[in-house]
């Protein structure tokens, strides 16, 4: 059985992460979604995640197969929630963004593995509140999110650099 694990992303991972994000962009387009169809996220976004020590890669036998940006603390995207409310109001939570698995590995449950790695890593740092959002029509990502115990709490808006976009917001407190 191959080794699957998560580590902090490095600048040397940028090219493969960008390729995986572009695969995700094409997958979303094929689903008829406008999510990620502009210039965001891009190489600068990834490089900034890594410089801030907020980028994490999932590896399968030492090959990068997934990526997520994970921040600890308050995330302005989640300050204003509509049509619902958070379970609590702390400003110390973990926000998960830019969650993507290489198209070459879809159907192998690696999204669940990446989410589990994120939970394990941040629980060890005493973080128990996790938040994530996705496009209202991104059914595959919604399945990953709810399949990992998150519950829909309402909706938020993101600015993707071109427009203000509605996203469904989820939370789990472990």
Give structural attributes:
alpha+beta; 174 residues; 7 strands
Furnish the topology, listing elements before pairings.
Layout: E1 4-8, H1 14-30, H2 43-51, E2 55-60, E3 63-72, E4 94-101, H3 110-124, E5 129-134, H4 139-147, E6 151-159, E7 164-173
Parallel strand pairs: 4-5
Antiparallel strand pairs: 1-2, 2-3, 3-4, 5-7, 6-7
Class by alpha and beta content: alpha+beta
Span between termini: 29 Å
Helix content: 25-40%
The overall average pLDDT, rounded, is 93
Largest sheet: 7 strands, mixed
Q: What's the total number of strands? A: 7
Give the low-confidence spans.
Answer: none
The neighbouring-strand order within the major sheet is 1-2-3-4-5-7-6
What is the strand content? 25-35%
- Principal-axes shape call: globular
H/E topology pattern: EHHEEEHEHEE
* Helix count, DSSP H or I runs of 4 or more residues: 4
- Rg (C-alpha, Å): 15 Å
Report on the structure:
- The two termini are 29 Å apart.
- The mean pLDDT is 93.
- The relative contact order is 0.19.
- A 7-stranded mixed β-sheet has the order 1-2-3-4-5-7-6.
- It has 174 residues and is of the alpha+beta class.
- Helices cover 29% and strands 31% of the residues.
Please give a quick description of this structure.
This protein is α+β, with helices and mostly antiparallel strands and 174 residues long.
């Amino acid at each position: 059985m191959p080794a699957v694990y998560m580590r902090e992303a490095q600048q040397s991972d940028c090219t493969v992460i960008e390729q995986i994000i572009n695969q995700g962009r094409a997958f979303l387009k094929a689903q008829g979604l406008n999510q990620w169809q502009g210039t965001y996220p891009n190489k600068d976004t990834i490089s900034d995640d890594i410089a801030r020590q907020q980028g994490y890669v999932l590896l399968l036998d030492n090959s990068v197969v997934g990526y997520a940006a994970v921040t600890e603390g308050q995330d302005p995207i989640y300050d204003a929630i509509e049509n619902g409310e958070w379970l609590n109001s702390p400003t110390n939570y973990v926000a998960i963004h830019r969650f993507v698995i290489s198209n070459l590995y879809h159907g192998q449950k690696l999204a669940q593995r990446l989410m589990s790695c994120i939970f394990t890593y941040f629980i060890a740092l005493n973080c128990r509140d996790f938040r994530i959002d996705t496009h209202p029509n991104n059914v595959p990502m919604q399945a990953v999110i709810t399949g990992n115990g998150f519950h829909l709490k309402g909706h938020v808006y993101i600015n993707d650099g071109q427009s203000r976009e509605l996203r469904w917001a989820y939370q789990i407190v472990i």
